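Hi F.,

I've been meaning to write this up properly since the lab meeting, where we talked about keeping a consistent format for the predictions we share between groups. The idea is simple: the sequence comes first, exactly as it goes in, then the structure tokens exactly as they come out, then a line or two of notes. No screenshots and no reformatting. I'm using this chain as the first example so we have something concrete to point to.
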Amino acid sequence: MRTALGIFILSFFSLFIFILISSFTQAEEKANQVNDQQQGAVRERDIEPEADKILKEMGDFLKNQKEFSATADVTLDDVLPSGEKLQYSATNSFVIHRPNKIYAQTVGDIGIKKFWHDGESITLLDVDKNVYAQEKAPSNIDNVLDHLMEDYGFSLPLADFVFSDPYSDLSENVEDGYYVGLHNVRGMKCNHLAFVQENLDWQLWVKEGKEPVPCKIVITYKDVPGLPQYTAVFTDWNFGTKEPDSKFRADSLEGAEKIEFLKIKKQIKK
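Output, unedited:
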């Protein structure tokens, strides 16, 4: 799981504070993998065939979509130093035009954030603070998403479903996985799956039928005090979306203050 799913929403909410507040980042994950290899540690994968089959069907379906959009209602726990939990809500939406265009938006308790990638540059806008950052970026969507995580420590909402190979991305670090049953999400019959990773557990509900899209996802962060959860319930999937190129070019920047991206510090091994 390249972006550790729900962690990105924290960074996206705090888009222009640019503080890395995730406890389970890609950099840490890669470092752990290197350490495991050096120590000769081998984690056995134990994924039930039925769960793996459904996850791959979903991943392959999304992989084959060249243009699509989706919306999801999100809730996220924030654990205070006292141990008290606060819950924040947002609505995330994104439009994807493979191989090189993205538009994403978050509207929620902590304001409105927008992101554009037009194939040449990326732009991040905090509507409430009226500030934005912009820079040249790779044209490939996968490379852009990796660039955001590796250099700035955040990822876009629901990015794991946007990569060119969602199945490979989601299953990469799974240690355990199994089929729970056929359950309902907002009146739709969905195959309920559960997966275990070293630092998090996650559940996925996949729509039954010819369009095996994600209906719901829940992530529990096991290495964070209070075991906070991230939940996203999808309200709309639209395939074959024909959006003009202008959709992916930054607008609403007039009068906004331009600021610089703040790169995360990368540890150098001695």
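Notes:
The chain is about 20% helix and 40% strand.
Confidence is low (pLDDT under 50) at residues 4-42.

If this format works for you, I'll send the rest the same way.

G.
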